[in-house]
Structures are given as C-alpha cells and as structure tokens.
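Q: What structure does this chain adopt?
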Amino acid sequence: MSTPPTLGAIILTGGASRRMGTDKAAQLWDGRRAVDRVAELARSVGATVVVSAGDGEFGLPRAPDPTPLSGPVAGVLAGVALLGDQVGRVLVLAVDAPTIRPEDLAPLLAAEAPGAAFEAQPLPMVLDLAAVPGDAQADWPLRRFVERAALIQVALDPELLPRLRGANTPQERDRLTGEPDGPKAPK
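A:
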C-alpha cells in the first residue's frame, strides 16, 4: 500500500472584488478574515503547506498574479509553481467560500489520482501535481483545466452549492451568513 501524497493548499485571492465592493479575502466572517477561515479549513483537512495566489499580503506564502486579474487558472498555476516539490497533491479553494466545511471536501479528498472536482462546480478541487496539464494556459477557464487534468467528477449535493460557490456580492454573503449586512465583528 502506497503512502498518499502530501497535501498542500492554494487559496485563490486574486480578483477585483468589484461585485462585493471590498476585498473578499479581508472581509470578516464570524470575526475572522475570510482568508484565515479558508486557511484554517485547509489545515483541518490535512494541508501541510497553505499558500495564497493573487494580490494581497495575508500572512501566507504568496504566489502573485503573473499579470493583474489573470484569472483563477493563473492562480492555480502560480500556486503550483510556488509549492514546487513540497507536496504531491493540492486542494484549491476560493477565498470567497469561507463557509465550506471539512465534510464538504471529503469526497474530493478521498478521490484517487488524478484528483477530483464537483460536477458543474470546478472549485474547490483536489489535484495531483502530476496531473497539471503541461500545456495549461493562464487564461483558460477553470472547467477546461479540470477537463484537461482529467479530474474525477463527483456528484454534487445541491444543498452544498451555496457554500461551495461562496459569496461574490453582499446579498450572497447575507444569505450564507443569515445576517443582513454580513456577520458582525466581535465587540
């Protein structure tokens, strides 16, 4: 029986946050920044190294966007390059989905090589580094990247979709938190 590859995590923090109005990574969710909640989630499921990919300094090793607003595949490729040979498998998470739970990720983490993503929802994904397409382009749509990496498509429970999709607008955030105007910081 072989040892599973070491797991790392890439948190995609790029993007302009135009629809949200403020930097999604720095927004408070239950008193903690979204990026910190997502990093904690990654560590709780076994990630030994967690990096951010995109703009902003968040206290994590960072893979900057190759050009401003390069897109999510650019972030994945930059994160993979930063992780180098430290890990054999990566969990890719979006910073705007800080309400994902460890049990939501279980079917992806349990998938055999080359990794997995949910049907019709490319993030989050788990990816063996050996499966990164050699001809991947930074401007590819995530769905093309998932297809070319031959990731296993896991059936998606519709109840999970709001958590997996996250919040790109204040209204989506309100729905996820159940609080008008988003979660309040502790006093």
